[in-house]
Structure prediction request, 468 residues.
Amino acid sequence: MTSRPTVAVIGAGFSGLLTALHLLADPDGPQVRLIERAGAFARGAAYATGNPRHILNVRVANMSAFPADPQHFQHWLDRRPGWQARAGFVTRGCYGDYLQDMLWRCAESPAAAGRLLLEADEVTHLRREGAGWRLTMAMGREFSVDAVVLALGVMSPAPPTGASAALGQSPLYIADPWRAADAVPEGVGPVLLLGSGLTMIDVALSLEDTGRRMVALSRRGLLPLSHAEDEITPLTGRYAGSPAQVLQQARRRRDGTEWRDVIDGLRPHVSGLWRQWDLAERRQFLRHLRPWWEAGRHRMAPSIARRINQMIARGQLTIQAGRTVAVDPGFRQVHVTWRPKGEKATRTRAFDALVNCTGPGADLQLSGSPLVQSLLAQGIIRPDPNHVGIDVDPEARVLDLTDAPLDSLRVVGALSRAARWEITSVPDIRVQAAATAFSLITALRETAPRDAGGDPDFSPSPANARLH
Prediction:
C-alpha cells in the first residue's frame, strides 16, 4: 500500500480551517498540512479581536460551522456559560474561541492522528512538480504535496485615490484596520476612516473611548443597516433575469413587507444569479447595485447600530459621501482633499491619522503576498474578468491559461468570489468548504495509485464533520 496523498491548506482562518476539518473528517482521506503565516491558527483577522464591542453581524442561530448540524455553535455555547449571547449575537472573540476549540479537538482525535500537521510559516513560492506541487516556505524549507487549497482570506484594501507616493511609508496611514486601536498616534485631532461599511464600524468602536472625533468617508456615505431586534422569516420566491429585473422583482415583493424579509429571501439565490449573468450584467451589478445590496445584506447587530447612532448624535462620528482627490502625509498630520458627492468644489482637511476601512482589496496585482505574486508571475493564477478575485470554476478549481480547471489547486473563501459572489460570510463559506473537501478527495482518489488488489488507497465519503 502506498501512503496517503497530502493536501496543503494555505491559510488557517475560517475557510482554511473548515476545509481542513472536512478533509480530516473522512477516515480514509488525505494527510493535511495546515499552514498559517500569522502563527495563530483558526482565528483569522476577523476573530482574533478581544474587544468586547466587536460583535458578529450574524446571529448565533446561523453561525454553526457545519451546515448539516445547524445547532453546533449553539450547543458549544450552552456548554460554556461564560459566553452568553445577547439578543442572539456574540462577540467575534467568542467565535474565535469556538473555531480554535474545534481545531484542538480535531488534533487530539484518533481519526486525525498522524494526518494533521500544523505549520506556523508562510508559503512564499508554489510551483508545479509533476502531478503535484512543491512549496517553498519563508524559513527556507521545501516540501511536496499532491494538492493545494488556497485559503488566503481577504486582501489588503487598495490605497486611497490620489495618494502620494509617501503615504504608504507614513505611520499616520494605517492600511490594516485591525491595527487601528494600537496604531493611531496619541493626540486629540480628528481621524479619517476611509469607508463606511462594517470594517469602519469596528474601527469606530475601537476608538470610541479615546474621545476622538472621526469622519467616515465613502463614495455614497452608506452605513450598514441594522438587523431586526427579533429573528425574521425570509420571504421566499423565485428570482430570474438581469440585475435590473431582479431588483424590480424584489421591489414588488417589498410592497407592504419588512425589507429584511425580502433581502434574506433573495440571498440564497444570489450565487445562482451571479453564475447566470454574463460579463456585462455582472459589471452592472458591481457598478450600480453592489453598495446598496451590501448595506442591507451585511447588517449590524441592533446593539451596535444603537451605539453608532449615539456616536453620530453626539458628533463623535460624522458620515461623509464623496471620494478622495489627494492624500498627502505630513510630519504630524495627513492632508486629505476630497470631492463631496454631487459637488464640483473640493474640501481639504488635516487628520491625525487615516485608517483604510474600504474592505477587501480585489486587484491581485496589488497584493503584498509573495505567494500571490509568484503564482501570477508563473501564470498559474489570473484575475477574473471583473477583478474581484482569482479566476476559478464553480467548484473553486483554478482555471489555467487554457481555461482548463486544475483539480489539484482550489481556492476557498473571499478570493473565489468570481465563481459565486456571495462567499464572504460563515453561512456561505461553510457550504463551500464541505463541497471543496469532498470534491478534492474524489479527485485525489481518481488519480491515486492502486495496490495489487486493484483498490485505491483511500476512498471518499461525504465530509460529515465526524471530528467535531
